[in-house]
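User: Hey, quick favor. My workstation is busy. Could you predict this chain's structure for me?
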Amino acid sequence: MSHYTGALEAVDRIVNRESEADEVLRQTVDVLHDRFEHYSWVGIYLVEEGHLVLGPWKGPQATEHVRIPIGQGVCGAAAASGQTEVVDDVNADERYLSCFPSTRSEIVVPIVYEGKVVGEIDIDSDTPAAFGPEDSALLERVAVLISPHSLVGWDTGGVPWQA
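Assistant: No problem, here it is.
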């Protein structure tokens, strides 16, 4: 079984086992971060009043980008378009909002619920061009699985979650 299949099955188990939305999202971040060496930072942003607000994340350090206007940066572009964004070289993409000096590539996958973008999965890698079709396919499927748990009914008040 590939890492991708195993990770998808692990997220499926989380979604079917956990009833608390924040636990579903936290555990999903842990699975993605821990199972793939080329995923150096994994976070989930949630849409709240025209912004992406950082939810659970895992990586070597926090990002300063805890609130991003929709439409700004790679994350904001993915939220605005509803399309996955893959950036092979963050230094060559003027939209990239620099988080960590070590980051070389990024993938952002919108989380859509009932036709509306409600959040996104944001993953950085310290490896250039780290994300291929298998990563996109996995993360798009994960986004579908966690979408009902990504609604901000339990509003954070604009305050980012603590990791």
